[in-house]
Amino acid sequence: MERNRIAYGDNQMLKCPSGNDLYQLCKYGIAGGIGAGIDFGLYALIITLSPLNYLLANAISFSLGTLVVYFLQKNWTFQYQKGKNVLLFSKYFSFVAITYLLNNILLIICIELLHITPILSKVIQILISFFWGYTISKKFVFK
What we know:
The protein has a two-stranded antiparallel sheet. The protein is mainly alpha-helical. The two termini are 25 Å apart. It is built from 4 helices and 2 strands. It has one domain (5-141).
């Protein structure tokens, strides 16, 4: 398989742009998209079908999405093989804790101050988190 192609489905290929950083960003986007899909889907399900507060729903959905993304980013996007998994997970957990706080602040601003629906607020939060997450993951966590 070519280095800049990512397999999906039955013999179909998704072509990522060439160049190490662009290729890595593309892979980050796919892995992050999977995590964001899990995060958003579970959040929407909880908000729609249960009486749980949106912040508790965010804690549950964010946690599951984050676990999936950690394993995808470590093993596929950044192909981190250095064997210092405790240190790596500590750095990742620190990044995730800060991201989680920022995500909650974004949700509170969108929902409570701007009166945006919880579902649309989550979409906004995920989009902002994507760019923040790539930069921190590349420069700090998986360097």
